[in-house]
From TrEMBL:
Species for this entry: Domibacillus aminovorans
Coiled coil: none
Lineage: Bacteria, Bacillati, Bacillota, Bacilli, Bacillales
Superkingdom of source: Bacteria
Occurrences of domain PRC-barrel (ranges): 1-76
Protein known as: PRC-barrel domain-containing protein
Gene3D superfamilies linked to this entry: PRC-barrel domain
InterPro entries linked: PRC-brl_dom, PRC_barrel-like_sf, Spore_YlmC/YmxH
A Pfam entry, by short name: PRC
Length: 86
């Protein structure tokens, strides 16, 4: 069993380019099933000045590759290949 606080301690890394995306800000739940449907990640750094809002990245459950002890591996920003489009 895992708690939300356990998720918040893990690094979130994009397997497409190996970069750390940010920290877990929130979890989106399916109201019918109660299952996690997406992770919402806050990127570090402010875009709109000192009091600006941090940008968010939404990672849908199907794009989570693996949840490990210290890291969550996700697929983000990957362009679909020609095989996927057919």
């Amino acid at each position: 069993m895992m708690r939300i606080s356990d998720f918040q301690l893990k690094d979130i890394v994009n397997v497409t380019d190996g970069k750390k995306l940010g920290r877990l800000a929130d979890i989106e739940l399916n109201s019918t099933t109660g299952a996690i449907s997406a992770l919402i990640i806050e990127q570090s750094g402010k875009k709109f000045g000192l009091f600006g809002k941090e940008e968010e990245i939404i990672i849908f459950w199907m794009n989570i590759v693996k949840i490990g002890g210290d890291v969550i591996l996700v697929r983000h920003g990957e362009k679909p290949s020609e095989e996927d489009e057919q």
